[in-house]
Amino acid sequence: MRKGYYVFVPVLLLAVACGTAKRKVLQQPNTSVVLADSAKRIIDDVALPDLAEAVAESQAEAIPPMMTTEDRVQVLMRNGINKQADWTEAIHYDIRKPNFVIIHHTAQHSISQTIRTFQLEHTKVSAHYVIGKDGRVVQMLNDYLRSWHAGRSKWGNVTDMNSISLGIELDNNGREPFPDLQINALINLLDTLKTKYQIPFTNFIGHADIAPTRKDDPSVFFPWKRLAERGFGVWYDESNLLPAPEQFNYVDALRIIGYDVTNIRAAVIAFKRKFIVTDVSENLTDFDRRVLYNLYRRYF
């Protein structure tokens, strides 16, 4: 028994020593060892995504995020925050509410050309809606955003018409009548806007009204009387054109209606282009005065 004991012990020590040396050769310093059966359990416990999920995830990462109009409004609102003040958001507020509608003609050759114009960086011009000759309506800006359609303009005491108005462009070169399909589409749109924003009927006007020295749109072909009969804009009472009193001041009358009378000649021409149509000279005839007096009485 004692002899067998001394023979067994060296063999056991040799096996342990060999195993220790082998581990030292194969194992890098400070490297943790994971047993094979443990590694298998770890892999089995991980839920791997299927191929469809992996492809969808890779495609989602490749597509840049698109900002909605509401996101852009939020960015604009954040840009208006005083960086020197603390910030916490209130929950009661309104976004810009349009109170006027300004009607234009495009003075271009097609609705596609106008849409392209409003999408070029250097043009610096836009409108909320464009309406084609066939009645197609294209919205290009959210109603709550401020478009660049009015330019340098004035109506009444307002000198920044872009901030309180909606701009509608009609595909028309300014030298042709407006098709019925186009006007019907315009009337439907105006009805929606008037109801939605509670816009007064007097506040549906043309670009030439607010910028008489620069613009003549929507031209003498535009049917203002037809729109006024539907509640969009003002027209005179053709059956009751009383003579204007001797003391009637036509300059004050134009100003009260809304025209900028800084350049009275331009204001008179803009007025006659809209209401007289057949004569757009700077001189007011007796008939012109009757029309102006009739309109003036609706405002004052």
Automatic annotation (TrEMBL):
N-acetylmuramoyl-L-alanine amidase domain location: 86-219
Leading EC class: hydrolase
Domain of life, per lineage: Bacteria
GO MF annotations, alphabetized: N-acetylmuramoyl-L-alanine amidase activity
Keywords: Cell wall biogenesis/degradation, Hydrolase
Sections of the chain in a coiled coil: none
Stored Gene3D superfamilies: Peptidoglycan recognition protein-like (3.40.80.10)
Reactions the enzyme catalyzes: Hydrolyzes the link between N-acetylmuramoyl residues and L-amino acid residues in certain cell-wall glycopeptides
Protein name: N-acetylmuramoyl-L-alanine amidase
Pfam families, A to Z: Amidase_2 (PF01510)
CDD domains cross-referenced by the UniProt entry: PGRP (cd06583)
Record InterPro entries: Amidase/PGRP_sf, Amidase_domain, NAMLAA_amidase_2
Source species of the chain: Sphingobacterium oryzagri
E.C. numbers: 3.5.1.28
